[in-house]
Amino acid sequence: MKNKIAAIVFITCLFAMTGCSAPIESSTTTVQTIASKTLSALAKVKSFDLDTDITNTYKIIQNSTTDKTEWKSTKLINLSNQEMKMNMAITDNSSGTNSNDSMEMYFKNGYEYLKAIITGVYGTNSWIKRNFDITLWNRETQIPFLTEILKTATQFGSLDNEKLNGISCYVLTITPSAEASVDFIASQEQPYGPQIDEMWGGGTPVVRPDAYKNGSIKLWIGTDNYLPLKVEINADFQGNVGGGFIPATTIPYTPTTNPIDSSFQGQLDFSNYNQPVSIQLPQDAMNTQISGN
Questions:
Q1: Which fold has domain 28-69+142-276?
Q2: Is the pLDDT of residue 18 over 90?
Q3: Secondary structure of residue 232 in the 3-state scheme
């Protein structure tokens, strides 16, 4: 009996020292309780840092061509007064070319400030100033979409305990609804970056519920405050996108040509929740005149 107790103590200590995953009770009640507490905690968030890394692999089945776009950003967000600072790098190898673009964006004093450097198209842009856009704000802050993913999950999977950067976390795997997955992916579209919920040339984007194939969400949630520290998102789409010019008389349009496989992998890293935030505009953006939205 003493040997058994010693073995249990040893194994418990080993997990604690190594930070390895340890399965915990994963009943539906336990998982839903954690999800509910996370939703409640997210509703009270005032500020945070957010790093994102999203990759889209886009395969045209007809001619077996594959395009890949990756966009990585760092954001400092103050929800209390709707202020944000964002820097983004975009790597795109679509259409047989490689480009490295960048964007800098601010929300400040009820306005959006944007400066983009887009290879071969815009060159080095000056600052653009626009009125505050709540849709763009929600997309950049991500909290509304993460909330919707948790609220509409169709299945709660495994639940583990793991340390992330020394912080104890619940590791929760869920299956999101098709609609929530589509909304999240579409939220990654940028003013001068990846075009996701619209296509040039009359095509219909493959990121839509009827083309949704499958997806999964994995969340690392702090055991002390029930706030997400890391979120991994995978979503696959397969469908036709049409193409070519479409007269206005044909709208709404159901695509019947050009089958596409589109796969998204994303990681969101949250940190510094509810810390004091100070966001200052760059000097060369301050005197920018407002332009049309």
A1: outer membrane lipoprotein receptor (LolB), chain A (2.50.20)
A2: no
A3: strand
Task: Pick the closest to residue 62 from 260, 229, 274 (CA basis).
Answer: 260
Q: What is the CA radius of gyration of the chain?
A: 22
Q: What percent of the chain has pLDDT over 90?
A: 53
Amino acid sitting at position 283: Q
Find the helix packing angle between 143-151 and 134-141, rounded to 10°.
70
pLDDT tens sequence across 103-135 = 999 999 999 999 988 766 554 568 999 999 999
Question: Domains of the chain: which residue ranges?
Answer: 28-69+142-276
DSSP, res 30: H
> Residue 148: its pLDDT value, please?
93
- Give the model's pLDDT for residue 192: 78
CB 217 within 8 A of CB 233: yes
Rounded-to-10 torsion of CA 57, 237, 59, 55: -10
Rounded CA-CA distance 255/242 in Å is 4
Q: What is the pLDDT of residue 112?
A: 95
CA distances from 5 to 13, 14, 44, 129, 161 (A): 12, 14, 43, 66, 22
Across the chain, mean pLDDT equals 82
This prediction has a pTM of 0.82
Contact (Cβ atoms closer than 8 angstroms) between residue 90 and residue 105: no
Work out the burial of residue 54: count CB atoms within 10 Å of its CB; fewer than 13 is exposed, 13-18 middle, 19 or more buried. Answer: buried
Is residue 22 over pLDDT 90? no
Rounded to 10 degrees, what is the CA torsion of 145, 150, 154, 155? 140
What is the spatial distance between Cα 120 and Cα 101, in angstroms, rounded to a whole number? 10
| Residue 148 burial (CB count, 10 A) | 18
Q: What's the average model confidence in pLDDT over 160-178?
A: 92
| SS3 call for 68 | strand
- Confirm if 82 and 136 have CB atoms less than 8 A apart: no
